[in-house]
Amino acid sequence: MHAISKIIARHSGRESVQTGEIVNVTPDYVMLNDRGAARARTLMAQMGAERVWDPERIVVVFDHHYPAIRLQDAEAQKKTREWAAEQGITKFHAGEGIGHVLFPEKGYATPGSLIFGTDSHTVTNGAVGCVSTGLGHSDIASCISLGYNWLRVPEVVRFDLQGELKPWVSAKDVILRITQQFGEDATVYQAVEFAGSAVRAMPMDERLVLTNMVIDFGGKTGYVQPDETTFEFLKGRSNPDRWIIDETDSDDDYARIIEVDVSTIEPLVALPHDLSKVINASDGGEYRIDEAIFGTCTGGRIEDFRIAAKVMKGRKLAPHTRMIVNPGSVSVYRQAVQEGLIDTLVEGGAVIGVPGCGPCAGFHQGMMAAGDNGITTASRNFRGRMGSPDSDLFVASPATTVASAIAGRIVSPSQLVDAEEFA
Amino acid sequence: MHIKGRAWTFGQANINTDLIFPKPFFKPSYEPGEMARHSMAGLSEDFASKAKPGDVIVAGPNFGCGSSREEAAGSLKELGIAALLAPSFSRLFTRNSINFGLPSIALPGIDQHVSEGDEIELDLTQGRLWNRTNGYEADLPPMAPETLRLIDDGGIRAYTQRILRERREAAQSSAS
């Protein structure tokens, strides 16, 4: 069995499970974001459930529409606060950051655990060696009412990432190479594991980008086998007694194993509105950039801010370009303040917003007008995702996003900054 | 389960849920019929007003990719769409559609065998599809019994109501 099957088996009270089998599982944690909590509590009432099955296992995160944007959100959030208090739900984070950044950071995501969340990027948590996936609101409402939900045991595809990354190349570029080569439907309904020397060398912040974006080529959950980097990251965040390390039995437990040589990857950019339309950033000079959207669950962690400040140091945004920054969490924010990174970005002309999803939630803090070109550290470049359906959105790494904001057009960071500054 | 209806085709690959149900229409709660009015709003201005109960959708590969929003599937169910067919569906979308009691059936190449307006007939129990307009026929992949049962139950809401009712009855009978 693959480690993922073992995790699913354990949460279904079984010794073993078969790939393709449908089993009922009880999750360790369920994440409800602001919109998900509002919908789930309404649907739960319609289903006839009065109490959630276990308030200890529910985590509410206000990250999409916080602080409230519209009156209807303010009212929904008020009701959710009341509901959480009534239900005895005490794990509550409003304005503290993005759920997918908070879950690993606060120690909710642990090796061997099973997590559901009301957001497709819930797959992010798999970087610590757990099974974590998104569910719709009715699905989640049923789960928190009954204490279980069904899962189909997925096939697993393994990407072996071998070689050393070039300066300025990051996990985002690796993912864009995968979507370019294999398409946005590369692994529909399959789980995706990342292994190989390049993964072992990556800090947790980068691994979380890999697993986050499996959903954007069809993956059901991401997975990285826990190692010293994982344990070092988790230390002090969760009780090691809760960590369960499952091992995959053999290479026969994979539907497919794909080798990717990452040493040849250059800084990349996905063109609107398709993650498989990818070019080298150095070939993107024809695209003017009006807005840079920095942050989100694939670019708002501390390593991303460190890279951003390296690129921005001593430079300014192009006169026609604006840059919106939303830290992934309050602790990232405070760390970035302490290290002087926020100061560097503000000095360069960036605007700092609330820790949370920012414009990627599609409502606020930097929507783009018709005809605008934006570049973002986010995971998606769907039409109209961050503003007008007639705006164009390019997806890139944190380094490329900041470099392009400074140049006012798409450039590779190495066209702007010496490789020595990378180290 | 027997379905017969007119086909709407959305042939492009990777149609995401941002297009099926754009974010500006998100609300904490919806009036009956409200989700249906915005169905496919990012792709077609008149689909939601012209689609009729019983119609089916035939889409391109990886239909419903992207965000987990169940309004994408829910709005189609609310419009009365009887079934969805595509070479492949995103996991979250297909899961949400099953949860609404709306069958989403992955069938390789189906987008090549149906044109807009074709009369499509499906027998989910027998596992067979007929395009009555051009004569194309195909076997449907078998559905997991759990999935069929959930669709038969009327979706996850009805399923959850039933389990909760059974638990209450069991608690009452053990108390008495």
Annotation keywords:
heterodimer, A: 423 residues, alpha/beta, seven-stranded mixed sheet, five-stranded parallel sheet, 15 helices, globular, B: 176 residues, 7 helices, 34% helix
The termini of chain A sit apart by 41 Å
Shape of chain A: globular
Tell me the fraction of residues in β-strands of chain A, as a range. 15-25%
The largest β sheet of chain B comes out as: 7 strands, mixed
Q: How much helix is in the residues of chain A?
A: 25-40%
Using only C-alpha atoms, the radius of gyration of chain A works out to 21 Å
Stretches of chain B where pLDDT falls below 50 for ≥5 residues?
Answer: none
The SS-based structural class of chain B is alpha/beta
Bin the helical content of chain B: 25-40%
Structural summary, described in words:
The complex is a heterodimer of chains A (423) and B (176). Chain A is an alpha/beta fold and 423 residues long. Chain A has 15 helices and 18 strands. In chain A, the strands form 4 sheets. Chain A has a 7-stranded mixed sheet with strand order 13-12-18-17-14-15-16, sandwiched between helices. In chain A, α10 crosses α12 (341-347). The radius of gyration of chain A is 21 Å and the shape is globular. The model of chain A has no long low-confidence stretch (mean pLDDT 97). Chain B has helices spanning 17-20, 34-37, 47-50, 71-79, 91-99, 145-153, 156-175, and strands at 2-10, 56-59, 83-86, 104-106, 119-123, 128-131, 137-139. A 7-stranded mixed sheet of chain B has the order 4-3-2-1-5-6-7. The longest helix of chain B has 20 residues, at 156-175. Chain B is globular and about 60 Å long. Chains A and B meet through α2, α3 and α5 of A and α5 and α7 of B.
In short:
The complex is a heterodimer of chains A (423) and B (176). Chain A is of the alpha/beta class and 423 residues long.
Write the layout of secondary structure elements.
The complex is a heterodimer of chains A (423) and B (176).
Chain A: H1 3-11, E1 22-25, E2 29-33, H2 34-47, E3 58-62, H3 71-87, E4 91-94, H4 99-105, E5 114-117, E6 131-134, H5 137-146, E7 149-152, E8 156-162, H6 171-182, E9 191-195, H7 197-200, H8 204-212, E10 222-223, H9 228-234, E11 256-261, E12 268-270, E13 278-280, E14 291-295, H10 302-312, E15 322-326, H11 330-338, H12 341-347, E16 351-352, E17 373-376, E18 392-396, H13 398-407, H14 413-416, H15 419-422
Chain B: E1 2-10, H1 17-20, H2 34-37, H3 47-50, E2 56-59, H4 71-79, E3 83-86, H5 91-99, E4 104-106, E5 119-123, E6 128-131, E7 137-139, H6 145-153, H7 156-175
